[in-house]
Amino acid sequence: MIFENGTIKFVPTRYYTTKGVVIKKVSSGESDFLVRVLTRDFGKIDLIAKGARRPSAKLNSHLDFANHDRVVFFKNGERIPTMIDAESLDIYPHWFLDMSQVDTVIRIMRTVDHMIPLGLGDESLYETIVTFLKGRPSQEDLVLYTKNFLDHL
């Protein structure tokens, strides 16, 4: 509800479910995370995960860097949509076994974060990132993925 000119105005709440890849997670406030997700349906979006930093929070384990998740969130006139549920679909542990692999995935996610504007939806870019994370690409594959990514800009 929003107060406007001394009267109460009700803003309808809308719930959304989509798949996405976590590209950034930052502490926010005492117990929240601000999570940036590249989604299939909404492009790159920021979501607030309230209470996710608490040790008992069920959301925290699903919001790790480069996880492929199903996320549920709502908008009700707030500036940042609120995440209410997340489920890991894939976690891609092979990227975190070798420091050079970790460096590669960090650089890719940072590039996506810096180059793609918030709210820009591109399902084929989302699919390219998910396909990339599922595999163990060779140097030649990295060049092809980079070329494909740059075609989306």
Q: What best-fitting shape do the alpha-carbon axes yield?
A: globular
Mean pLDDT over the residues:
84
For the biggest β-sheet, the strand order reads: 5-4-3-6-7
First CA to last CA: what distance? 38 Å
Rg from alpha-carbon coordinates: 17 Å
* N-to-C series of helices and strands: EEEEEEEHHH
Weakly predicted, low-confidence segments: none
Number of helices: 3
Fraction of helical residues: 25-40%
Given helix and strand content, the structural type is alpha+beta
- Main sheet? 5 strands, antiparallel
Into which percentage range does the β-strand content fall? 25-35%
Count the E strands. 7
Q: Could you characterize what this model shows?
A:
The protein is 27% helix and 35% strand. The model has no long low-confidence stretch (mean pLDDT 84). The protein has three helices and seven strands. It has helices at residues 99-115, 123-134, 139-151, and strands spanning 2-4, 7-9, 14-28, 32-39, 43-49, 68-75, 82-90. The radius of gyration is 17 Å and the shape is globular. It has a five-stranded antiparallel β-sheet with strand order 5-4-3-6-7. The protein is an alpha+beta fold and 153 residues long. A hairpin with a 2-residue loop joins strand 1 and strand 2 (7-9). Helix 2 (123-134) runs antiparallel to helix 3 (139-151).
